Amino acid sequence: MTDIRLERLANVLVDYACGVKPGMWVGILGDVAALPALRQVYREVLRYGGNPTLFIGDEYTTRAFAREANDHQIAWVDPSMTLYYEQADIYIRVGSSTNTRAMTSIDPKRIQRIAAARKHWLDTRLNRTARGEFEWVGTWYPTEAGAQEANMSLEEYEDFVYGSMFLDKPDPVAEWRSLAAMQQFKVDWLKGRKQVHLQGPNADIRLSIEGRTFINSDGHKNMPSGEIFTGPVENSVNGWIRFDYPSIVAGRAVSGIQLKFEDGKVVEASAETNDDLLQAQLNTDAGARYLGEFAIGTNFGINRFTGNILFDEKIGGTVHMAVGMGYPETGSVNKSAVHWDMICDMRKDSTIHVDGDLFYQNGQFVV
Fold first, then answer.
1. Beta partners for 216?
2. 88, 157, 338, 367: which could join 152 in a potential S-S bond, CB 3.0 to 4.6 Å?
3. Rounded distance between C-alpha atoms, residue 16 and residue 365, angstroms
4. What is the 3-state composition of the chain as percent helix, strand, coil, each rounded to the nearest 5?
């Protein structure tokens, strides 16, 4: 018997998040481990009159390519995927994993080369989204590997994942609309403001949001969601910040990251574990040393670290920043093959001032 929460998830993705209409070309992407969810989404797209295309991968083939592909194979870009990104209407990705450490032994420089070769896909998706031509949403399907990473049983992890999306409620869409209204108030307050200053035991950093737009992330791009974010002015970031939660890239956890910025650029960087991966990411291209995103997490249903950035970056009481590619709809012009989110806890002795006004204190909005 299908879990009713999976049926609700499919409806939230197809109806609320993406607004599938008859005739739309809808790509459904995911690992074979997420097949139960992919099947539900496929059926829901059909019910709404869309034209679904299912793209299934798996960790084995991803790892095999990263380990064995030669230079020509890395440089080759699948033309069918290029066509999809350039012409499709909707992108729905259902993430999952059977082994969160599957890529641990892969040289991080190879991973970055693969990402750089496929950068056109990311650029196209983001630019078409900014022009209103392409809708997308990403979500997560709970597996034993995810549960183990989060230090939970599978049943506990399923409850956590589905609860963070309000799928345990009779009307998840109504819950998301309520969160959206709360966040919109904050976005409206920030409109037209210029300077942001974060202070606390983990940060003393200033950045400009002048001319930039805050986005109300209310479940239409990530599911779960619960954040407001923007792209800071690229050369405006000055100060230091310590990210006290690990950041996981290609199955490797980078812990104890600390960055120092001068005129927008990361000039000093260190990590307590896997520092080589941190340095490789920052050296991917010129844009990888500049911030593409600054965000505040608002989902207090996500109250613990799980090792999955989709959930962790929305933890209520935290902020996160991403080095690399910015979202064009925020006004960001930073370009990079990297977009790497890092999370900072603001729940103790911490403040955010905006143009000198107290906006946020100890993990809570005060406006």
1. 228
2. 157
3. 27
4. 35, 30, 35
pLDDT digits (tens, 9 = 90+) for 170-200: 999 999 999 999 999 999 999 999 999 999 9
pTM: 0.78
What amino acid is encoded at 305 in this protein?
F
Query: CA 126, CA 293: separation in Å to the nearest integer?
Result: 14
- Residue 234 to residue 206: CA distance in whole angstroms: 12
Sheet with 135-140, strands from edge to edge, namely 51-57, 25-31, 90-95, 135-140
* Chain centroid, CA 141 distance in Å: 15
Q: Which two tokens stand for residue 150?
A: 């989060």
User: Could you tell me which residues are beta bridge partners of residue 322?
Assistant: 293, 341
Angle at which helix 79-87 crosses helix 119-130, to 10 degrees, equals 10
Q: Is the peptide bond before 224 cis (omega within 30 degrees of 0)?
A: yes
Q: Which regions of the chain does DSSP assign to beta strands (E)?
A: 25-31, 51-57, 90-95, 135-140, 195-200, 203-208, 215-217, 227-230, 238-243, 247-249, 252-254, 257-262, 265-270, 291-297, 318-324, 339-345, 351-354, 357-361, 364-365
pLDDT, tens digit (0-9, with 9 covering 90-100), for 12-70: 999 999 999 999 999 999 999 999 999 999 999 999 999 999 999 998 999 999 999 99
Give the integer Cα–Cα distance in Å for 311 and 304. Answer: 9
Token reading at 328: 């064009």
CA 132 – CA 114 distance, rounded (Å)? 28
Closest CA relative to residue 183, chosen from 139, 214, 208 = 214
Within 10 A of 312 (CB to CB), how many other CB atoms are there?
22
Which tens digit of pLDDT belongs to each residue from 143-163? 999 999 899 999 999 999 999
DSSP letter for each residue of 159-182: HHHHHHTTTTSS-HHHHHHHHHHH
Backbone angles phi and psi of 325, in degrees to 5: -50, 130
* pLDDT, averaged across the chain: 94
Query: Mean pLDDT across the stretch 279-299?
Result: 96
